[in-house]
Amino acid sequence: MRKFASITAASMVLAMSGVASAAQGNYFDFNGEPKVYAGIGYGQYSFQWDDRENDTSFDEDESMLKGYIGTALNEYFSVELAYQNFDEASDIDSNAELDGVSLAARFSAPLSNRFSLYAKGGWLEWNADIYANIPEVGRVGTELDGGDWFYGAGVAFAVTNNVNMRLEYERYELDDRIDPNMDVASLSVEYVF
Fold this sequence. Notes:
Helix content is 8%, strand content 67%. By secondary structure, the protein is mainly β.
């Protein structure tokens, strides 16, 4: 996570240095019309679970990619549809691979014409393939799918009137049988149409 934090900080500094040459305008000025946007993001996630039935646990950090499209109805409220692909996480005797599609509402609080803080929450439909090597039993695998709530917060920075950067944290609490938790920190770039 430290490596990701360093990359994120460097990216934000570079983005902020571009403000001086960016067109002066108000990214959050809607003039009564919704804005459609699309973005891609890269991040790091921590995936942890504990399978009490099989006496095994898992804790690993890996990277993830996401793509999303959204509509900002005004400067305070947006709706987003996203696809998340979490890289396979593995340790000595277990591995897990997860992906999903989410629908979220985002509530923003503009701080200036370039910065905004936001909170988001929504529903994730997910699919996971989980395998574990259990002593005296062998390799045990299962495919799980389901839907669960998630929440997050972040900061948005308008580089230009059409390009926005976002730094966000999201928390997913998935299926109760194995108590998995996922914490995701990501940096995204989006284009506003």
